[in-house]
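Assess this one:
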Amino acid sequence: MPLEVGFWKHTLKNLDSAVVENKPVSMSEGQVYVYENSFPGYTVKYIHVDNLAVRTCGARASLKSGGIGTSTLLIILHADANQEIRSVVDIWGVEDGKRSTVLPVNFNNMKSMYLQPPAEVPAKFGARQIFEFSIF
């Protein structure tokens, strides 16, 4: 089901366009895709999420936080078992003149429930560290 919030005008600026393509899964819960974005200095005025393949794509979009009148948003795409996610997300807005700085994210405290590093982690090369992740 498409999601359309707000009113589009030709004066709006395209803040982001994303195409999401995930193959179908056979799990009874289906699959979920999370789209989260922040647009410092801009106010979201129009959100449009639509499916590209009507027959094979059964993704439903829902706005969970943020949205119209804010600079952030969180959209959840959910597809039932044996349905793929093939959707396009378009976000439009206006500049609000308030240029805020985004603080850098500290990745040292982040953990993933789905990815784990291999048993042997390679040594550091300068400031970069190389990881290969495996899904379990």
Observations:
- Residues 106 and 128 are 15 Å apart (CA to CA).
- Confidence is low (pLDDT under 50) at residues 112-119, 123-136.
